[in-house]
Design goal:
Layout (H helix, E strand, L loop, with lengths): L7 H28 L4 H9 L18 H14 L1 H19 L3 H14 L3 E4 L15 E5 L2 E12 L6 E7 L9 E7 L5 E3 L13 E12 L3 E3 L4 H37 L1 E2 L2 E2 L4 H29 L5 H25 L1 H4 L6 H9 L8 H14 L27 E5 L5 E4 L16 E3 L3
Parallel strand pairs: 1-4
Antiparallel strand pairs: 2-3, 3-7, 4-5, 5-8, 6-7, 9-10, 11-12, 11-13
Helix pairs in contact: 1-3, 3-4, 3-6, 3-7, 4-6, 6-7, 6-8, 6-10, 7-8, 8-10, 8-11
The structure holds flavin-adenine dinucleotide (FAD).
Length: 442
């Protein structure tokens, strides 16, 4: 039976994150956004509060919470600041390849460090010349005895300036595209690793984003997440599990925008009455709520699939591009409802707008999600109804009234239906010959 009721545990996790968002994140978010700085004390506090690393499997001492819990937590944190939520969530993104890989020794080594010492791990596929086209990466991993030598640059790396480790995707040969990609856990405090300056961004300025440069960085084979040829699939599997959470960033940010718009609607008066009295604006908030509720359901469904062990790829993409686009629409309408104030830095909506704008870009742009979903429809989708040429469209005669031996013949080109024991010599509409006709009744 389908059930949308959260368990008591899930409600407790949601409430805990909600409390943290209101008491720890909200009071500082605008200040650090303005300073364009990541407040490390909030990231530490999130770790102390147990809101980071919730997905480390029980076998390695973690809580082993599911994707649904991750989605619940993220909605709450992002409702206070999507930038900080991104930096808090980044450990989950960075560790997902480690969860998915089969390198037991590496798991035994790294997970306890994250759990007990609060170590951070970031995720690095993108490069200065490549983001969407993951197979086009150039960062080189050259086999060298028992090790690999890494040379190249990763760009746009969330938490790259503050993480202890990175899950780095590289290639043994850029020309071999998918076949050459491998992945490693790379300690970032070793010779040859240079962290770039924080990239100045439009929004999510509370999250740290830098380039990482590798020059002859020695990575032992024990740190392998995926051997050459298996890295691309690992990256895709990672995204399939993290995209519902990106949708949840949108749900949280949109929810806050809607609440601010409601507040303003109730308090602001024009032409002698509150804004809330105008149906044009009531329709706006109804649609905002509709989009938020729809987005949340899509994110929950994709997370639920993943937690049941199903492949969530398609629903993850749908939830990501629907929820993140809907979120921007909601935030934009909230800004409109707040009028001129909405456009100022003294009102909170402009930060929500800047923060939300990123969601359509990272972890696979909206366009890439559409490519994935369209690819599924074109290659794997099984239609329920017959194909066009097999559709028995009877316009003039009830099939029950056909005489014995009579049949309906459908022209496969223009759709004309002819009744008789045989197809006509030629279609009277499109003039295609008899061979264009197909019997559509037995
Ligand atoms: C703040 C921030 C944080 C990030 N964090 C991380 C991180 O932690 N780790 C990491 O690895 N990466 C990270 N990224 C990178 C992010 O995932 C990429 O920016 C994103 O995947 C898009 O890649 P790109 O910027 O190279 O755009 P491009 O791939 O150059 O694409 C440019 C535009 O063309 C469109 N496009 C590309 N190909 C097609 C196509 N075939 N059909 C139609 N449209 C297409 C894209 O949708 C986009 O609109 C981050 C990015 C930002 C901005």
């Amino acid at each position: 039976m389908l059930n949308f009721e959260l368990s008591d545990d899930q409600k407790q996790w949601r409430d805990k994150a909600r409390d943290f968002a209101r008491t720890a994140i909200l009071p500082v978010a605008w200040h650090y956004d303005h300073k364009d700085e990541t407040p490390m004390q909030i990231l530490d506090a999130a770790y102390q509060a147990g809101l980071v690393n919730t997905d480390i499997p029980k076998a390695y001492g973690g809580l082993g919470l599911g994707l649904l819990e991750s989605v619940l937590l993220t909605e709450e944190l992002a409702a206070a600041c999507a930038g900080l939520a991104t930096s808090i969530f980044d450990n989950s993104l960075g560790m997902e390849p480690l969860i998915l890989c089969d390198n037991e020794g590496l798991k035994q080594r790294i997970f306890p460090e994250m759990l007990d010492q609060g170590k951070r791990i970031c995720f690095a596929t993108s490069e200065p010349t490549m983001g969407s086209d993951v197979a086009g990466m150039r960062c080189l991993a050259t086999p060298d005895g028992e090790d690999y030598l890494l040379n190249g640059t990763k760009y746009w790396i969330t938490n790259g300036g503050i993480a202890d480790y990175a899950s780095v995707f590289a290639t043994i040969d850029p020309k071999s595209r998918h076949e050459g990609i491998c992945a490693f856990v790379v300690p970032l405090d070793q010779p040859g690793v240079t962290r770039g300056r924080p990239i100045p961004k439009l929004g999510q300025r509370c999250s740290n984003t830098v380039g990482l440069h590798f020059k002859d960085v020695r990575v032992p084979k024990e740190n392998l997440l995926a051997e050459p040829g298996k890295g691309f699939v690992l990256a895709m599997k990672t995204f399939a599990r993290t995209r519902p959470t990106i949708g949840a960033f949108g749900v949280g940010a949109a929810r806050t925008a809607m609440e601010l718009a409601l507040d303003y609607l109730n308090k602001r008066r024009t032409f002698g009455m509150p804004l809330s009295g105008y149906q044009a604006l009531q329709f706006k908030i109804a649609e905002m709520y509709q989009k938020i509720e729809t987005s949340r359901l899509l994110c929950w469904k994709a997370a639920w699939e993943a937690d049941r062990g199903q492949d969530p790829t398609i629903d993850a993409s749908i939830s990501k591009f629907y929820a993140t686009e809907a979120a921007l629409e909601v935030v934009d309408e909230a800004l409109q409802i707040c009028g001129g104030y909405g456009y100022t830095q003294m009102f909170p909506v402009e930060k929500l707008w800047r923060d939300t704008r990123l969601l359509r870009i990272y972890e696979g742009t909206s366009e890439i999600q559409r490519i994935i979903v369209a690819g599924h429809l074109l290659n794997n989708y099984t239609p329920v109804m017959p194909s066009l040429e097999d559709l028995p469209v009877h316009l003039e005669r009830d099939p029950a009234d056909l005489a014995p031996g009579e049949q309906a013949w459908r022209c496969r080109i223009c759709g004309h239906v002819h009744y008789g024991s045989e197809a006509p010599d030629e279609c009277p509409y499109c003039f295609f010959p008899q061979s264009a006709f197909k019997a559509v009744t037995a």
